[in-house]
Description:
single chain, alpha/beta, seven-stranded mixed beta sheet, disordered N terminus
Amino acid sequence: MSTPRRKSAHYISPWFCCAALLLASALASTLALAETPAPTPNRTPRSANVLSLQLQDLDVELDNAGAKAALTKQDARATVGAVAVPLLKKQNLLIEELGRADAAAGAAQQFKVLRNMAMMATLGDEDMNKRLNGLVKNAGPAQSFYAKMAATMRDWWISGADASAQAKIITPIKALAKQAPKDELLTSCLLEMMWVGSATKELATQIEDVIYKDMKSESALRYKSVPRVGRPFLVTGVALVSALQQPAPFTSEKWKGKVILMHVWSTGHTGSRQQMEMLKKKFTELNPLGLEILGIANEANFKDLQAYVADKQVTWPQLVDPKNPNWQTIMNTWQVPHLSTIYLIDRLGIVRAINPAPDKSTELLAELIEEKLPAATMPKK
Length: 381
């Protein structure tokens, strides 16, 4: 199945670095294989920059070896594992060395340590399998928890061709999430399982459900801050409600039960200006039936925006950020593909479409307007 592509590397916040390094580095040391080389006497310690470059080189070698592609292919694991497992071991040793050179840089790589352990076990490293299973059962609470993460990834990939077997792993995954909803490494593990090795699209969606419903880590909150089709989305910020007023706090929560069209635009962008005339017609026609529009104004000059809105008689709110008027922050956070992007959100607050074709947009808007809320979800008057 095809899975969503990542937009950025796994993130670990600075406040988490020390704890992550102590816990996950301890686990890495416990699981390091017997052939860990002894330190070379009088060798000059390598810098964090040099070690980071070597880690990147190993990533390329692992990609070339087809390590991730082999995780769910039983007939390819042994062959690929013969090449990939030594590379994974080497990478983990480099991460331990990186942690000694730069604690924060080492901590930021700790997810990779856990993932590499899971990959080694999946690709046929029996010693790693035994060590993981032993730590799950016999280690202290912290090490046992992180070992469970690695073992869960291993089990997910091993059953990647068997949807029924993989479905049974969802329950223990939910248990881990409830046990540590703010854990950054667990969030990274869940994202990795969602992106790599899901037997079906539905199972990948179930992993994503856990992130949306149970995870509260910084990286989980950031993942949920991106509008995604089929997922709830709430907008909060500051909005220019009319050209004659100053910006005021705004939340789309007040539009609960309404259909919302969000329009990313700029006064200097021809395509989005042309869309504005179409949107004015739609707003006049459908606002009485429950349509609200929110402009996302990518505008460097706030006064220009006020003047344009007044001149063109644009009557819906414009989300603004006086401290960052060109809106690069929200463009990056939302992963907006380009100006003139349109998002359609239904009466339940679920994103239903991103950039639908013009004819599909009209058709879908009509469908969303016609949809009625279940009685239990109707907003109180």
